């Protein structure tokens, strides 16, 4: 229950936060909603010298329309993302996946940016951001840069966010009118995903005009299932097409093995869940 | 004139629990919220290794850390010769290792304490704990029970010469309570009209996972040493502290303030409690210890962990002729307070509700280098119930019979009570037909069987299974003579006192020690009826050896069936005294005084006195009979003549997704016969909680150790407990055949749901997929295990499931339990 000692800074602007991070050096850790950081602090699996708490930066909690994008502040709580009408209308896959994150308490504290920056491959939102080609706005000492989702996730718990940098905003293209579904498989209702599949389809009549598919916990990072996407495009949204496309679900994956699911079972799940997710999205 | 057995207003009333507001809001005294002035804080430095020699402990850096008062090993405290008690020597030649307060030369399980740090704050103690350097020489861990018993096995305690703690045998042939199982098996093997079914079941290791972590505070200032502890057993703890440390019993006051759950996990005399006493005496200051959740999962005792080899014999017509039970029970590294006896409690329950003519029970307890095991909700009886209810389904499958019908063929019919079983227990009451009939109706058993057949016929990817458990349990622990015959180190009575205050209010002191059960409400209801006073006027006092000096505490569904009856007996004495006083004041013969609803009246007149008036009269003592003391107060100690035997029929509708292996508990119906119901709301709460815990064993929970003896799921991220979101809305009902062994007719309900539900779920899972060729799925029946079982049954090979690897994701980041220092990014 008692973490190792650390210094605590609570800046009130991004600029102050960047300065605080620079001053604190390489042992600093950013606190967003704290839902992943606090347990590891309490178990002393991490012992940062300084915690920079972004909780006082009001400007990081916005959810707004920005041209052809929905821009979400990194500190927007899951609960707010999930309930937001703009998100529901234009990025419904994100609403659906966010609804499956943990429990209400966690969703009120945990943040979109925190979850994505933490980059747990079992986290639900990475696969969504990847499938939907989100952009990540990152602030640092030398200003702001934007990283596409395809370059954001680097490895286990490792992203393109550099030392001294802060994720400030995640920008999702609008997928207005797309059919979406997040199919999650876990041991208990509030547990992490053993495997999950995020699907967005643009349907044209009964056929699939465009497809975006992301996989959760099938490798060191979220994975874009491009083989599945390619197999779906141009097909009727039928059970047969879904099953056939789902056979491509494990291409390019490196499924982890653990007590909940050895890799062969995880691969099997990825195929079954992909088929189900496509059918559910297609309605 | 009787004060019992009349149906009255309070008994049976669904009162909301009077203790809930303070317990739920936390605005009450839990142990950790008690911090006397000047309290020092203890942190335990624990071994990360399961089995290792201790070469040295370097305390210097920790001793120099801020706020540190001292760093101590057992030798430093002079307690290296002290052993913690085991109160249940199940056999005269049982092997019993010394269980030290802190490991001295060798650690025997991962999580065992090696040193303690005492500091001015808990944070300083914790920080300094990281600075204690312990030099270990790793030894071979002992993890597998069968391997531990083999020749040449590494010994957990070499001085014992074996890893076998004891072997305990009951043979109904030898005992004269039934036939010989060996003969039943030989006969069945030789008879083409008989079958012999042998199965091996595994009772996985579970962690009790109570909500409030363990905690204790010891204040040595004052004449008596005061010990506050989050314990189920304040009275036993006091006596055992004397036995362990030699502090005179009269110099000890033990208080269990409000306690947040226990499930058996707080029946123990903890090394940490004894260390706090020793440190408080040494330092002359209050000393406090509160464990973290991870410490709790790692070092608090675990439950279950048995291998069960079961052989059942039956005629082809379904009549069971014999049951042979061979258990291996994992004790862990040491013996807990009642650990060796836990599997033995199950010995009497394997025959369950059935007329089994021959039964033999053999249990070998084994030492391993794991956390010790001891009582966990049901304690021996869930294990027994699981085995018998599983094997009855296996027998039904073997014979091609409906499993419910097969049970009915073999169970004791309601006309046959009282019935003396093959193990010599006398079941006083019960009606298995009634409970089963109601359960079938609520469940719509026949319709679900039809749906099952349809799904099977069309090869639906979601198959339906019906899980059955018709259980009984022995509750109300326990008749002292029976405990004596089992060499248990205490009696089974319970004590109560009633104080009639001058204002007419009533204080009731119980020796039971609630930790979430609702005693204050249920006992108040009983007393309100017994004395005819308002429910609100009754105050229940408990858990403090200064106010309730006698008691044997709370476990084994005993609080109502034993403790509640002690209260009734005390109330009867109060009424007898009040009647004598009433007769005197009313100038009538005692024989003419009638007592009803709190009023003592002279028969045939309107003259009378309320019990409150009599309490005041006794307090004033201006006018009372010469042969009576001026007091209505009374004490009682009740020793039950027999156990009580709740039973019930539990039915589970289980869907198995054959593509993913996912098990979905669609519906759960149970009809329990728990005798007279004091408070239906409390009963329902107990049943719901019990079901959740039993279902969790079937579907979710397991304490996993890797090949080095490290507990690999020692946090709530990976020790999987279900929440309300994982369980259906239970459909529960109660029928009542009152117990004849006590004046209230109560039987006990605290463990029923847990005992009954585990086999119901596993039977249901197998019933859904048995037609696919699946013979068994080990608990917990996770989706992965079910999927693999289906694959293997269909001839497809699958890879091994690792138990000892963590994938980097899912939860705490890259925690590798074997490399806990691994930095999280």
TrEMBL record, chain A:
Region (Disordered): 241-261
Species annotation: Pseudonocardia dioxanivorans (strain ATCC 55486 / DSM 44775 / JCM 13855 / CB1190)
Molecular-function GO terms, alphabetical: FAD binding; oxidoreductase activity
Ranges of biased composition (kind: Low complexity): 251-261
Principal EC category: oxidoreductase
Pfam families: CO_deh_flav_C, FAD_binding_5
Domain FAD-binding PCMH-type: 1-177
UniProtKB keywords: FAD, Flavoprotein, Oxidoreductase
Gene3D superfamilies: 3.30.465.10, CO dehydrogenase flavoprotein, C-terminal domain (3.30.390.50), Uridine Diphospho-n-acetylenolpyruvylglucosamine Reductase, domain 2 (3.30.43.10)
EC number: 1.2.99.2
Name of the protein this chain belongs to: Carbon-monoxide dehydrogenase (Acceptor)
Secretion signal, residue range per the UniProt entry: none
Domain of life: Bacteria
Record-linked InterPro entries: CO_DH_flav_C, CO_DH_flav_C_dom_sf, Diverse_Substr_Oxidored, FAD-bd_PCMH, FAD-bd_PCMH-like_sf, FAD-bd_PCMH_sub1, FAD-bd_PCMH_sub2, Mopterin_DH_FAD-bd
Compositionally biased intervals (Basic and acidic residues): 241-250
TrEMBL record, chain B:
Cofactor(s) listed: Mo-molybdopterin cytosine dinucleotide
Enzyme Commission no: 1.2.99.2
Pfam families from the UniProt entry: Ald_Xan_dh_C, MoCoBD_1, MoCoBD_2
Keywords: Molybdenum, Oxidoreductase
Segments crossing the lipid bilayer: none
Biased composition (Polar residues): 794-804, 816-825
Name of the protein described by the UniProt record: Carbon-monoxide dehydrogenase (Acceptor)
Gene3D superfamilies: Aldehyde oxidase/xanthine dehydrogenase, a/b hammerhead, Aldehyde oxidase/xanthine dehydrogenase, molybdopterin binding domain
Alphabetized GO MF terms: iron ion binding; oxidoreductase activity
Domain Aldehyde oxidase/xanthine dehydrogenase a/b hammerhead residues, every copy: 25-140
UniProt signal peptide: none
Disordered: annotated span: 793-825
Annotated InterPro entries: Ald_Oxase/Xan_DH_a/b, Ald_Oxase/Xan_DH_a/b_sf, Ald_Oxase/xanthine_DH-like, AldOxase/xan_DH_MoCoBD1, AldOxase/xan_DH_MoCoBD2, AldOxase/xan_DH_Mopterin-bd_sf
Organism the protein comes from: Pseudonocardia dioxanivorans (strain ATCC 55486 / DSM 44775 / JCM 13855 / CB1190)
